[in-house]
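Q: Can someone sanity-check these two? First one:
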Amino acid sequence: MRDFNTWFSNFKSSISDYGYYVDFQKVYRKVESIKVELNILNSLIGSTDIEKDFDNLLAKYPEILKCIPLLLAVRINEIYAIDSDGEFIYNFRKPNYTATQYKIFMQKTGLFDLISKHVINNLVDYATGVEVGLDSNGRKNRGGHLMENLVESYIKKAGLVKDKNYFKEMYLSEIEKNWKLDLSSLSNKGEAKKRFDFVIKTSDMVYALETNFYASSGSKLNETARSYKMLAQESKSVKGFAFVWFTDGIGWKSAKNNLKETFDTMDSIYNIADLENGIIEQLIK
């Protein structure tokens, strides 16, 4: 018999990998796509008459407008602005105002000061820094896949091959069709469109895996524990099928009692320490 408190004591505070913090390749691609235009704008750095120089530059190279939003850490091509002079929606892909109005935009947003006063020395370097900052917003999305990626690495380490004996993001209906299983008790007679993170097929079993990691607390944890407990109980009635749950993270501290209830009734709930101790190999042997 496993002891819950011992098991729970191994929960980790983070599983952030090296690529979690910044996707530099994505940053480089974004900057590269407007590098020519940024280098053209570089000619304005230190300008003593930036409005005139911007006018001349815009007349000759109107495409420089497309890199303006990034200088303000904005990803969209249209920027809204309002003040006592009116309400404006500036389009930086398909110019919809005069050069004079775009000069007003540059002046009022502070971009003219940034460039002309030599606050920065190179707009390509500046844009790269802005992209790094913007990319940090993507950590939430990357974080959502960290546990999934970690579990998959152990699945591969156990010798399983994708689309041969393990599968990603498979719907319950696909499992029924592929291996002639009746999982109606799990799907509310076909009403629920349940999808599992992974499915492992051995000679005599189909293992449906869910993975998650909670670095912080929240109301979702209690509901997750309850629903997975129910799913595990309903799975027991299906011969040749088992539900497996990999979870971890100190966020569970706030929902520890609910997790313990699930742990006490579910044999196939595991954490990262279990992965490290070869639980995948034990399941498939």
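And here is the second, same format, sequence then tokens:
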Amino acid sequence: MLPGLKTRLSVALLLLISAGARGQSVQPQKTQVPAEADSAFLASQGAQQRFEFASKISDDSAIALRQQRLSSVPFFHGSFLSNGSTFPYTVVGSKPQDGAATTISTQLLPISMLFEGYADEKGEPIVLDPQALLQRVTNSPNFRSANYQTGFTQFGDAVQRAEFYGSMAPEWHTLLKAPQELKAVNIVVPRGMAKVFRNPASGAIYALVDSSFFISQLNTIVQMAQLRPDALAVLLTNNVLLAPEADVKRCCVLGFHTAFDAGQQAGTRLVQTMVWASWVDAGILGANFGDVTPLSHEIGEWFNDPFGSNQTPEWQHPLASLGCQSTLETADPVAALPGSSFPVTIDGFTFHPQTQVLLPWFTRQPSDAIDGAYTFPDQHLLTSPSQPCQAH
């Protein structure tokens, strides 16, 4: 090779590669601002409030639960008869007849979400972070006491006391400790995994996130977090709604509760119980729905079915279009009904926890709950027991 030719060829090749790379380079994708969506937008698309439950405990843990060899949050067993069949159930706390006050630890894990491909009008990234809401959440009726017909107590305890009013000893309570705040987790949501909206009236920004993506992230988070089986784990997001493929027509899952195996200790099986819920700003999902409505929904159902083991006679949803269920989910029957939230004011802020149906609604027996009610705190939301599934 002639002197200098190798060098010239190398330079030429580098220039060619560089030029080719420039020609094939992917242009940066433009960011977009959140789509404007007024308060009626989600309803106009057919969106509905949805809540889910999925028990992940193993068969061995399910057997240990029935044999009371399970270590988790405190719980007791009961049962009822319906059409000749026995339906056992497990409820958080101690037996109402014992009159004990049970206090349960809670852990609060905030989840912040950054949405790739979105920016506000100033070009700043869109981040939905619940950090600024933590004080308000811990100050909510889920953890602070207020006046109810069943006493000055927390919302969940007030409902439980109404539910077992006919059998409880006067000093029976099931209370949640103020949450231990865990280290916040940050999730980056890739393009295509979410749609971001802005309510022009309130300025509230919210996101519709692909359900599968979010669940996969949570599966990783719970493995890394220092969760305690003897405590209720509360995972909190801010204005995050879920739907398959972020499809607004299949929106909106706002919370769920679950239980899963957490190992063994001294031969005893450990089970972790957990709820995820989103704080929702007022106006996103209609009037009188917002703030801790989803969280109270899930905590109320956790009280009455912590392990997903409680089956009931199949019941028709009060809104027939929503079909039938056969689980003891105390908030699902009324979640989509107008006026299902119950205003509770603490320190000048009005929260909107959700009214719950009571055990007699599922048993279809004369109610021995407070005042013969089937729902609480709003005793007028449903005034008769559940009806058999109309599809049968």
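A (reply): Looked at the second one. The first strand starts at residue 35 and ends at 36. The longest helix spans residues 5-24.
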